[in-house]
Design a protein that fits this description.
CATH architecture of one domain: 2-Layer Sandwich
Strand order of the largest sheet: 3-4-5-2-1-8-9
Helix content: 40-55%
Shape: elongated
Distance between the termini: 55 Å
């Protein structure tokens, strides 16, 4: 087991020196026992919040359960018991308990009901350590009672199993199936938070499948479940639902961000409503548009932020973009970039890769997708032209007192050559001085300089294009 950091032990011992019991509990104990570094430190004690604050003057009480935060990272909560949960969300009444045994008995799962004091004396009333060894999620006491107290615990069971790579114990799983309907009373914000934790797990796709098997998915993402056993056209190996979770599987394996994972999971939820025909001749025209509307509505219900919804909806809406080498122009690629946003175009390509692997194809990034990356990169760069200069034709006309004509373009071409040689030259004062010098040259001398500058520019453009092609392995 990992060692408890000195500052954590010091807090436990300080409570004990003041004649109180103090224990580490919850996730930090679970992490210590599985040799992981805890992200959070939770303690419980028989001291009241007011007594804790007296011992740690710089601490503060921050919620209705009397949790006191010490050193800005350690949360200490008094032993407590909870009365019945009439609404299956919140205890009707919370009271301070007298013993650690009472406190542990009201916790959700056995692996979260293990306690250690400063000397690593262990209290494990419900065989939580054994369940950790067996990799089992099991409730403390009767499963139905625990889920009746807080129905979200059913989804938390799936989340713990997904994140830890555990299985849900048989009786606990049966209780979830039996009481899944209780999820209806849980707030959408709490459901959203658990869903995101599942989606961000390495085994995310298994977590979504577990939600479906246990009857919970219909209360979380019912539109996704509608795709279960909905067959697709011949180029798809899997039904819509299986394809979706396999797309998420790839996104998780590649450590893509939350928005890409959610878009990969939800990109085809419009297919069941868009399906026309049967078998190999079935079509799903416009499913990306229908799906985008459905995703928008579901994410709004789950209380995602407006900014997050806009991003994910765009990834779903445009995941079906068409691209074939030599068929799609740079201008059409630029339009796609404008629609999705330059900051999101890489994420859109990641969704497309997840979509491909989820379809059963062997390659996530075929040549044409790499070629599109090349075109996007090329199109996103400012073109090398006289428009880059801090001076324009009107300035030259004014400085030299001449009329518009070929000479203006020739001078601009020469100036561009100076700037390409040294970007520091792109200053108005420098360029104005050079205009005066160039204006005094003969027509033949100026034309020769302009042609030389154009050749140098073409070489730079070809070199940059060659390097960009090499970057994406395209020809």
């Amino acid at each position: 087991m990992m060692k408890i950091p000195k500052k954590i032990k010091d807090v436990l011992k300080k409570l004990e020196k003041n004649d109180f019991q103090a224990f580490l509990v919850g996730g930090c104990v679970r992490d210590l026992l599985t040799d992981k570094e805890p992200k959070d430190w939770d303690m419980t004690t028989n001291a009241t919040p007011e007594e804790i604050v007296k011992i740690f003057p710089d601490s503060y009480i921050d919620n209705k359960f009397g949790t006191v935060t010490v050193l800005n990272e350690i949360e200490i909560t008094p032993f407590r018991t909870e009365a019945k949960y009439t609404d299956k969300r919140h205890p009707d009444k919370v009271e301070w308990a007298k013993t650690i045994e009472e406190d542990l008995s009201r916790r959700d799962f056995t692996i979260n009901a293990i306690a250690f004091n400063a000397d690593l004396k262990e209290i494990d009333l419900f065989e939580g350590k054994e369940d950790l060894t067996k990799k089992i999620i099991r409730t403390v006491g009767k499963a139905e009672d625990r889920f009746s107290e807080d129905a979200l615990r059913m989804m938390r069971a799936v989340r713990f199993a997904t994140v830890l790579g555990f299985e849900i114990e048989e009786k606990t799983a049966e209780a979830i199936k039996k009481n899944a309907i209780w999820m209806k009373v849980i707030s959408q914000e709490r459901i959203r938070d658990e869903l995101v934790k599942i989606v961000m797990a390495d085994n995310a796709y298994k977590g979504i499948e577990m939600l479906r098997e246990l009857g919970l998915l219909k209360f979380v993402l019912p539109e996704l479940e509608e795709g279960y056993e909905v067959a697709q056209a011949k180029h798809h190996t899997f039904d819509v639902y299986t394809h979706s979770i396999l797309s998420l599987k790839y996104a998780a394996e590649k450590k893509f961000n939350r928005d890409v994972r959610l878009a990969s999971l939800l990109h085809d939820i419009g297919k069941p409503k868009s399906k026309r025909g049967k078998g190999e001749k079935a079509t799903f025209y416009g499913h990306e548009v229908v799906g985008a509307r459905m995703v928008n509505k579901r994410l709004e219900r789950l209380k995602f932020s407006k900014k997050d919804i806009e991003k994910i909806v765009k990834l779903v809406r445009y995941h079906l973009f068409y691209y074939n080498v030599d068929e799609v122009s740079e201008s059409s690629v630029r339009r796609l970039v404008r629609k999705v946003g330059p900051e999101s175009i890489e994420e859109l390509l990641q969704v497309r890769m997840a979509d491909r692997i989820g379809s059963g194809v062997p390659k996530a990034e075929p040549y044409k997708l790499r070629h599109m990356k090349y075109v996007i990169d090329k199109a996103s760069k400012d073109p090398i032209s006289v428009k880059m200069l801090k001076i324009d034709g009107q300035d030259i006309i004014k400085i030299l007192g001449i009329k518009p004509g070929p000479k203006i373009g020739q001078i601009l071409d020469v100036l561009l050559g100076y700037v390409l040689d040294d970007p520091k030259n792109n200053k108005k004062i420098f360029l104005e001085k050079e205009v005066k010098k160039l204006g005094s040259l003969s027509e033949k001398e100026l034309l020769s300089l302009a042609k030389s500058s154009q050749k140098d520019r073409d070489k730079i453009i070809m070199k940059e294009d060659s390097m960009t092609k090499k970057k994406y392995w395209v020809t």
